[in-house]
Amino acid sequence: MIDIPRRKAQLEARLADLGARLEGIEAELDSHNSRDWEELATERETEEVLESMGTSGQQEIRAITAALARIDADEYGFCVKCGAEIGEARLDVLPYTPFCRKCAG
């Protein structure tokens, strides 16, 4: 049996963490104003890494938000594709997954 309150708290904590990280990334990207070409090149490389981290974070935020909506709709823990129950071990690794192991593969 899935411990829904524990999963919800876990997802909400991760969502808050990601939100804080994305704010930090945004602040870091906004702070780059170098006029020196060498520094500008280094900043650009850093920006690409930060933008990639931001994109990844945004995707995870969308997945977590969808999982929280499934919790509210009493549909959490069931595959959105086939309706089978998602295994507890899978939810331990990917608490926001909408798919059972079979449909994810």
TrEMBL record:
Assigned keywords, A-Z: Coiled coil, Metal-binding, Zinc, Zinc-finger
Q: What stretch or stretches form a coiled coil here?
A: 8-35
Q: Where is the Zinc finger DksA/TraR C4-type domain?
A: 76-105
Protein's UniProt keywords contain Lipid metabolism: no
- All copies of domain DnaK suppressor protein-like N-terminal, residue ranges: 9-71
InterPro entries referenced in this protein's UniProt entry, alphabetically? DksA-like_N (IPR048487), Znf_DskA_TraR (IPR000962)
Looking at the UniProt entry, the stretches that span the membrane are none
A Gene Ontology molecular function term of the record: zinc ion binding
Q: Where are the zinc fingers (dksA C4-type)?
A: 79-103
Which Pfam family is one of this chain's hits?
zf-dskA_traR
Keyword Lipid biosynthesis belongs to the record: no
The molecule here is called: Transcriptional regulator, TraR/DksA family
